[in-house]
């Protein structure tokens, strides 16, 4: 099946620094990539939708200047958490979609990145 | 707007017993329904989905789910639980085309030996 990877799997950074998380579709070209955030024992919250070559669409309440998303190619999207603060500590999950016949799509999830800001 | 309700934060079941994890949904149009499982510090693993056709859907690891349109439900079931089934389970819904998935809050399944 289709595989989505994320790098790094874990990262610890100091408050005020920036962190970049990569999401790659390894064996397919993704139509769209999504970024989710998950707090402990809670559900996934959609942060943004990312299409290759265009600006990401952010969900209401998500600061686009803080969570920079770049979708440079059909296999790579990056999420940069700028000027990170402890409240940004969370589990970040990406997903990548591939179009299917009939106008629908399949969505595949990455393994997640645990960000801890100290 | 679409939404998913998972009414139970946690379900406890003894190994070998049947399990049910409940899910109800609300969506405009025909729903596409999904179940995912998440182990600690891991991403989501796909279990099964309902798009159309037979209301009983069989998925990975012996799980199945039944789509009930009149009750707008899509409960996850397994005839005989394993300790290794202990994990966080998410129900999700979307409609056809390029719509986003909406997740329920998740249900922790604990299977005791």
Describe the protein in words.
The complex is a heterodimer of chains A (118) and B (113). With 118 residues, chain A is mainly β. Chain A has strands spanning 4-7, 10-13, 19-25, 32-38, 44-51, 57-58, 67-73, 76-81, 90-99, 105-109, 113-117. In chain A, the strands form 2 sheets. In chain A, strands 2, 4, 5, 6, 9, 10 and 11 form a 7-stranded mixed sheet that branches. A 4-stranded antiparallel sheet of chain A has the order 1-3-8-7, with no helix packed on it. The model of chain A has no long low-confidence stretch (mean pLDDT 92). Chain B has strands at residues 3-5, 10-14, 19-21, 24-26, 31-38, 44-50, 56-58, 64-68, 73-78, 87-95, 102-103, 107-112. In chain B, strands 2, 5, 6, 10, 11 and 12 form a 6-stranded mixed sheet that branches. Chain B has a 4-stranded antiparallel sheet with strand order 3-9-8-7, with no helix packed on it. A two-stranded antiparallel ribbon of chain B has the order 1-4. Chain B is globular and about 40 Å long. The mean pLDDT of chain B is 93. Classes of the chains: A mainly beta (118), B mainly beta (113). The interface between A and B is medium-sized, with 24 and 20 residues.
Topology:
The complex is a heterodimer of chains A (118) and B (113).
Chain A: E1 4-7, E2 10-13, E3 19-25, E4 32-38, E5 44-51, E6 57-58, E7 67-73, E8 76-81, E9 90-99, E10 105-109, E11 113-117
Parallel strand pairs in A: 2-11
Antiparallel strand pairs in A: 1-3, 3-8, 4-5, 4-9, 5-6, 7-8, 9-10, 9-11
Chain B: E1 3-5, E2 10-14, E3 19-21, E4 24-26, E5 31-38, E6 44-50, E7 56-58, E8 64-68, E9 73-78, E10 87-95, E11 102-103, E12 107-112
Please tell me how large the radius of gyration of chain A is: 14 Å
Assembly form of the protein: heterodimer
Low-confidence stretches of chain A are none
Query: How large is the radius of gyration of chain B?
Result: 13 Å
SSE arrangement of chain A, N to C: EEEEEEEEEEE
Distance between the termini of chain B: 41 Å
Q: Tell me roughly what share of residues is in helical segments of chain B.
A: under 10%
> CA-to-CA gap between the ends of chain A?
37 Å
User: What are the segments of chain B in which pLDDT stays under 50 over at least 5 consecutive residues?
Assistant: none
Q: How many distinct beta strands of chain B? A: 12
